[in-house]
């Protein structure tokens, strides 16, 4: 780590959230590929914006086109991928934005690290497990990734490769069984949790 840098404190998080009249936090969606994370995240972002809450979605594929384009899918690269996203989402949350992330984030330790980054900074972190049986995910498979993984064309594929397991969250704040429910059902579960915890109000005060 460089020794010639200094942390500069500007506005506090409390000041930013007071001006924006909303909390800054991260809503962290995790689940298998094709579980519906991104679809729910997009709908959630739209719902929040339509209700005057400043929010921004960080998507797994999109981030790998830019910030994390130097990373592959080895266990080490997966860890670094999520570490960076944890740091970026923390910055968004500190700005007073509601950050919505949709990443497989298969390892429990990495998700806990992202949570700790937020907690240490006094920021909210809501883990959402978007769950489907793997056969349902394979049946959807809009990108054909499971088929390629089964054929050996993709290595280190989560849920298929032996060295790429998905470690299910043990106690997420929100659990969504997305095998049969609608996108609206998923969004409503997240919103209901946030309202019940006093994080958000509808309509925005």
Automatic annotation (TrEMBL):
GO terms for molecular function: adenylylsulfate kinase activity; ATP binding. Its EC number is 2.7.1.25. Residues 24-177 form the APS kinase domain. InterPro entries: APS, APS_kinase_dom, P-loop_NTPase. Pathway: Sulfur metabolism; hydrogen sulfide biosynthesis; sulfite from sulfate: step 2/3. The keyword Kinase applies. One of its GO terms (biological process) is hydrogen sulfide biosynthetic process. It is an enzyme of class 2 (transferase). It catalyses: adenosine 5'-phosphosulfate + ATP = 3'-phosphoadenylyl sulfate + ADP + H(+). Gene3D superfamilies: P-loop containing nucleotide triphosphate hydrolases. Catalyzes the synthesis of activated sulfate. HAMAP family: Adenylyl_sulf_kinase (MF_00065). This is Adenylyl-sulfate kinase. It comes from Arthrobotrys oligospora (strain ATCC 24927 / CBS 115.81 / DSM 1491) (Nematode-trapping fungus).
């Amino acid at each position: 780590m460089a020794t010639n840098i200094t942390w500069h404190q500007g506005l506090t998080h409390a000041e930013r959230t007071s001006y924006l009249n909303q909390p800054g936090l991260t809503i962290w969606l995790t689940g298998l590929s094709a579980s519906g994370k991104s679809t729910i995240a997009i709908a959630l972002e739209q719902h929040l914006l339509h209700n005057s809450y400043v929010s921004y979605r960080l998507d797994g594929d999109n981030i790998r086109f830019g910030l994390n384009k130097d990373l592959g899918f080895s266990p080490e690269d997966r860890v670094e991928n999520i570490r960076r996203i944890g740091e970026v989402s923390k910055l968004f949350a500190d700005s007073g934005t509601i950050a919505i992330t949709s990443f497989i984030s298969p390892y429990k330790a990495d998700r806990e690290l992202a949570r700790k980054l937020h907690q240490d900074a006094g920021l909210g972190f809501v883990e959402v497990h978007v769950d489907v049986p793997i056969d349902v995910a394979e049946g959807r498979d809009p990108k054909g990734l499971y088929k390629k993984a089964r054929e050996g064309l993709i290595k280190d594929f989560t849920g298929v490769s032996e060295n790429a397991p998905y470690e299910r969250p043990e106690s997420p704040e929100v659990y969504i069984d997305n095998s049969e429910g609608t996108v609206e059902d998923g969004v409503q579960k997240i919103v209901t949790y946030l309202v019940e915890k006093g994080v958000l109000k509808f309509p925005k005060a």
